[in-house]
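Minutes, methods subgroup
Present: GH (chair), OT, SY

1. OT presented the first of two proteins processed in the latest run. Sequence and structure tokens recorded below as shown on screen.
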Amino acid sequence: MDENQKKWAKVYGSLLKEIIRLYAIDRPEFIKEIRATDNSLLQWLSGSRLPPDILHNNICNIVKKHISDQKNNARNNIMTKIIKDNFNDLYKNFVEINSNDIALDNKMGEYISDLLIVCHFNGKLTPQEPTKVPPTLTNIAITAPPTKTEYDIGNTLDRTGLVVTATYSDDSAKEIGISELTISKLDSSTAGNKTITYNGKITEFTVTVNPADSGTRTCIDTFEKNKKISIFVTYAFESDEYKKRVIDFTRKLREMGFDATMDEFMKREHPNIDDMMIEGLKRDKVIVILSEKYKEKADNSKNSGVKIEFRMITNDLDENNKKYIFINFDFFSEELSKKITPKLLGKRYIIFLENYKKSKFDELITCIKD
């Protein structure tokens, strides 16, 4: 062999040697299986010569058999990692020699490729990709401020329009969902910066709070008084859209200063539905949102949450008549009233909000404060 061929023969020998070592192949047994001599194997392993075609094919077939056997071996997971790691080094050696413009005849190329393919399991001649380290968060910045930055005293913070972008160590960037951000509460008495926190990174935006006039002062006083009234809003689930309507209603009460809550806001602190129900009914006021679904569950469902809660409410109605307020979001009609009123409620007065008509909502507020 010339010098180029000797270098490739050494690569072949190193590959074969690693395969025998990593698979713990017994040499005498291996020699017998491939139908060769001990001296021939030593020459192949040392790289002083290459095996003839028929013995090379035998080598590949026997190695494949050992691979198949290893798949059923308890050490397979550890073995696979060792072989894949070692394969990367062998492959680099293969590429490095090839990049030096060393001439390679077709037979040697086939020999080397065969062993590389066998070594890397069933024909995948691609080195293992290095483990990628996930990029780390380096900074957050406001790419679009909130639409509303000016407030009157007593307002709550409006996040609409706010866009915050995160930058990572690999120079990538992504927009962060508002629900993932922690934003400091609006101090409704003075202007100032609002702090945004995301995974330990901080940025700020500025809001302005207008000074109070006499009318605003009255609103503030009302707001503070409302904070002393706790409210539990209860309903029967119909759909996600209906639930959102209840959430918006509860938030509207909160914006007016009332300490209003519902299942959506209580489930983290009270994951047990019975505990949540008991805690809710302890509040100063209980607003029951009547609907056809509420009537159906209150009248017919066996041991449903609505039915149990409604029984507790009706048992307490005579003693705490003003505590319970029954409402419906829609416009009044005799037909609708019959469809939504549970049997045990009788002729109890219901406030039909008529999609938040001012006079109707004022009536509700009056009942809450009574």
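2. SY then presented the second protein from the same run.
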Amino acid sequence: MSSYRNIGTLALSVAAATLCASPVHAKRTAPRDVRPVTAKGVEYSAPHFASCRERLTSCYTIRATQITDRRVLWQCDVYFVDYDPFLEQDVQDVFISKLEVENDLLLVENERRERFTLSVQTGVVSLVQKHEGSRTRIRGKPCAIPEPP
């Protein structure tokens, strides 16, 4: 009789543990806002969650805005992160964390301290420093940057 009680207790314990167990979600905190930089009447910013046209990919964008009338002049996807489909997407995001401007170059740094440059004249993006094992990649062609008015 006691063996039936032990089996019953064990079965009840397993059922309770299974029902009460909640799935583990690897959610990250929201990215910090990046301080925009200005040069020659243009503000350069890094909006989070820019739309990306590629499936299982996230893009990280710089936006150029005319200071006088707040008109968006252009946007450029500086780098992309290719998602591992077997991992949660939010923990794979690598947001832009810092912007600086030096002459006609934007210096872009992300949360993994990878560094990129973007020429505001030619739209050419260059990778300066990459994190080992990173899934980031830069665009293969220059961004379309219109001539200044």
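Chair's summary of item 2: Confidence is low (pLDDT under 50) at residues 14-24.
Next meeting: continue with the remaining queue.
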